[in-house]
């Protein structure tokens, strides 16, 4: 569901390197959280489940072309729904049995949310550092360059 909603957002230049970097970042954060949870006696599989999904959702929100706008409300709906379902998978006994998760302590979801916030922040930093200056058409396709130039000079 998130991929469909996210597909309505504009892709910028250098999509593949950014995608690879963010994939490595998500994997590193998730594995670090899982190792930490295992070493501290927490249910590490549940923590990995929650951190992986929540961090991906944080990245999805951070990759928006116009952050803070309601231009694509379906992305917000998809992220909220996915996060609710993930929380249910850790909190609801029937879903715990189905997914093999265990309940987390009250602080563990807070930690997972903080880590998902890191995914959002890193994605925003990466997006803002790779964006061309306003009015710069060098990174655009010829069709896009004509559109940007006409808006810049009108």
Outline the fold blueprint.
Blueprint: H1 2-6, H2 15-39, H3 44-62, H4 73-91, H5 93-99, H6 107-130, H7 142-153
Helix pairs in contact: 2-3, 2-6, 3-4, 3-6, 4-5
In round numbers, the mean pLDDT is 81
Approximate helicity band: over 70%
**Shape field:** globular
Any low-confidence stretches, pLDDT <50, length ≥5?
140-154
Based on CA atoms alone, the radius of gyration comes out at: 19 Å
Task: Report how far apart the termini are.
Answer: 38 Å
Element pattern in H and E: HHHHHHH
Helix/sheet category:
mainly alpha
Percent of residues in β-strands: under 5%
Q: Quick one: how many beta strands?
A: 0
Q: Biggest sheet: strands, sense, closure?
A: none
Q: Treating each run of at least 4 consecutive H or I residues as one helix, how many helices? A: 7
What does this entry show, briefly?
This protein has 154 residues and is mainly alpha-helical. It is built from seven helices and no strands.
Descriptive overview:
This protein is mostly helical and about 150 residues long. The chain has seven helices and no strands. The protein has helices spanning about 1-5, 15-40, 45-60, 75-90, 95-100, 105-130, 140-154. Helix 3 runs antiparallel to helix 4 (about 75-90), helix 3 (about 45-60) packs parallel to helix 6 (about 105-130) and helix 4 packs across helix 5. The longest helix is centred in the first third of the chain and has 25 residues, at about 15-40. The model is unreliable at about 140-154 (pLDDT under 50).
């Amino acid at each position: 569901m998130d991929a469909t909603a996210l597909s309505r957002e504009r892709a910028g230049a250098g999509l593949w390197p950014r995608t690879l970097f963010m994939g490595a970042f998500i994997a590193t954060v998730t594995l670090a959280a899982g190792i930490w949870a295992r070493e501290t006696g927490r249910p590490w599989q549940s923590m990995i489940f929650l951190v992986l999904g929540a961090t991906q959702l944080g990245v999805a929100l951070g990759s928006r072309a116009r952050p803070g706008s309601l231009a694509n409300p379906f992305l917000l709906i998809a992220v909220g729904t996915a996060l609710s379902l993930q929380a249910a998978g850790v909190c609801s006994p029937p879903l715990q049995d189905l997914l093999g998760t265990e309940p987390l302590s009250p602080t563990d979801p807070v930690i997972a949310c903080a880590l998902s916030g890191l995914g959002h922040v890193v994605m925003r930093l990466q997006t803002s550092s790779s964006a061309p200056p306003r009015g710069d058409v060098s990174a655009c396709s010829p069709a896009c360059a004509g559109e940007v130039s006409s808006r810049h000079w009108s």
